Known about the structure:
The complex is a heterodimer.
Chain A: E1 4-6, E2 11-14, E3 19-25, E4 32-38, E5 45-51, E6 54-58, E7 61-66, E8 71-76, E9 85-92, E10 96-98, E11 102-107
Parallel strand pairs in A: 2-11
Antiparallel strand pairs in A: 1-3, 3-8, 4-5, 4-9, 6-7, 7-8, 9-10, 9-11
Chain B: E1 5-7, E2 10-13, E3 19-24, E4 31-38, E5 42-50, E6 53-57, E7 64-68, E8 74-78, E9 87-94, E10 103-104, E11 108-112
Parallel strand pairs in B: 2-11
Antiparallel strand pairs in B: 1-3, 3-8, 4-5, 4-9, 5-6, 7-8, 9-10, 9-11
Amino acid sequence: xxxxxxxxxxxxxxxxxxxxxxxxxxxxxxxxxxxxxxxxxxxxxxxxxxxxxxxxxxxxxxxxxxxxxxxxxxxxxxxxxxxxxxxxxxxxxxxxxxxxxxxxxxxx
Amino acid sequence: xxxxxxxxxxxxxxxxxxxxxxxxxxxxxxxxxxxxxxxxxxxxxxxxxxxxxxxxxxxxxxxxxxxxxxxxxxxxxxxxxxxxxxxxxxxxxxxxxxxxxxxxxxxxxxxxx
Lengths: 108, 113
């Protein structure tokens, strides 16, 4: 079993829809949980991070962590075409381990 | 504030050659990590340097090596290149002891022919 599992997509949704992206993991030692966004020909950029379990909101983005289920989610409200990118979940103990990323397409 | 700078952006090398990639972290960041990104495997951790010392290492063969200088700039080297080494190599920097919130550079696209 891989440490971090993430559906690669692609995921296509109409503009304005709510997007749900998810990851599961196996290592219970992970403490920090992150979401990165990567545009084509660019490096990943940090969207949000959460320490331990709980929710965190930043504008249109909400991150949720359920450590009991080893499951994390990112919700994007009022999705825009500019949100079209690859979204990578990541988590860390003494190093950051990434999921393979989900390609998201927001259709105008 | 300048971001993480990686040079060169693109590189084409022949199988069997060696290559050196460079990374300049954000000013004040002392930790530099390197990742290999491929479509099949995603982002895979190569190694992390902190204050000129390798603090962590991923599961890559010894052909992959790195170092960090006193000004926190880092280089990674790949010797005896193989076709499978073709990838985007990403460098990320972070403040000391922070295992979240890495800032990535735009990467070096290495093609081995």
